[in-house]
Amino acid sequence: MSEIDYDAAQDKWDSIPPITNQMWDQDLPHRTVSSILAKRALSGYSASAEPVSILDDILADLRHLCDVLDLDFEAHNQRGLEHYLEDREEDHERFAPAPHPGP
After folding, report:
1. Which residues of 54-75 are buried (b: 16+ CB within 10 A; e: fewer)?
2. Which alpha helices (H) appear in the chain, and where do they start and end?
3. How far apart are CA 54 and CA 70, in angstroms?
4. Distance CA 64, CA 70 (A)
5. 36, 24 contact by CB (below 8 A)
6. Is residue 44 part of a domain?
7. Domain extent at residue 12
8. What is the dihedral of CA 54, 58, 36, 18, to 10 degrees?
9. DSSP SS3 for 46
10. What does DSSP assign to residue 21?
11. Is pTM beyond 0.70 here?
12. Structurally, how many domains does the chain consist of?
């Protein structure tokens, strides 16, 4: 497993803006909207914990929830990965910088 840069993760966490009504009127990448929504959901989870710890805890708790609901976490995790990859591809197509014209 790779080493975690806790300070960098905290800095990035702190840079994610809050949800605003204007956000819904903007053409934003999935990555931006999803990060804002995830931070809001996780912020209520434990405001004093580091984002890395919150993420680890919520993933474990989601696994427990799947156990209680008799759902296959890995199947949902795989579908979530597929949605994530589709979102990334769409964002790349919509928001990638335009190529520079030739000389």
Report:
1. bbeebeeeeeeebeeeeeebee
2. 6-15, 30-43, 51-69, 73-95
3. 24
4. 10
5. no
6. yes
7. 6-95
8. -50
9. coil
10. G
11. no
12. 1
